[in-house]
Fold MutL-like protein 1.
Amino acid sequence: SVATPSRLNAIKSVYGLLVAQNLIKIEAADNDTSSSVFEMDGFISNSNYVAKKTTMVLFINDRLVECTVLKRAIEVVYVATLPKASKPFIYMSVILPPEHVDVNVHPTKREVSLLNQEVIVEKIQSVVESMLRKSNESRTFQEQAVEASPSVPPVTKNDLYPSPSPSGSKSQKVAVHKIVRTDSSDPAGRLHAYLYNNTQKHLEKDSMLTAVRSSVRQRRNLKGTAYLTSIQELINEIDSKCHSGLLDIVRECTYVGMADDVFALLQHNTQLILANVVNLSKELMYQQALRRFAHFNAIQLSEPAPLHELIMLALKEEDLDIESNENDDLKEKIAEMNTQLLKQKAEMLEEYFCIFIDSDGN
């Protein structure tokens, strides 16, 4: 085992002084033969460390390897513990019985899997979280010298264009990617407040833009609210069950990132919230469909899609036995019957859902 100062010196030599200055020593161990046997020591970055990419140096039994499960578990802790956290730097040395390491996960033998992997990862994850929370209690900030006459004036909503400096020389424009939106109430689509445009060009396009917006509004609100009683009842049912607190969270939250395939991390004020985006998306689409009923935007396909083929594709997708061709005749009949039914309902589908079906069933 290499001494701690030597390790820090090695990290400083390879990754730089800034990394070495922002590391926390970390240790974890277990000797329960019924659950897990391992020893771990190393360093993780603290709350002052800033990086765009995760760096993980992992040694298992003194061999440099990768363990994706462990890496992801630690990344999740950083996202959940530090608001708007940067990616971590991780150095770990894990010692465990050689027979508990499976190196046959990947052809290069670089990726490994561990016996009782879930238990080991959970214990390490717990220690990382504990150390990170202690680190987050105190933050240090580097001082930066500021010139008396800044070359770049601050940007405000009332002053979107840079003004000349007192000396009369032209000031530099702030790069667009350095302008940060800080107001969650400002709609995501309103990018114009964060871009520099030529004033003259902006005025020339203004009248044309107004005309386009007006025509879009007229098309979308042709009949005002839904005129069908059934639709209005469904909308009223949603409104009666609406939770104002959750509505505020969804309306004003900031998306942080995905925790896994189902859950996303959202930040609202000082709270970090785990949201099931699968269920949230389904509910959102359902409510959108009700509120935009008969006002949907149409998308024109370059080549109209034949209904018969689309239905056949759907039927084959549901068929568990792909190799079997016994039910092809039945599928053809179902496709033909449904194509005729949709053609009969073409007028209603166009009016209510903006789905246009021609006489050929396209």
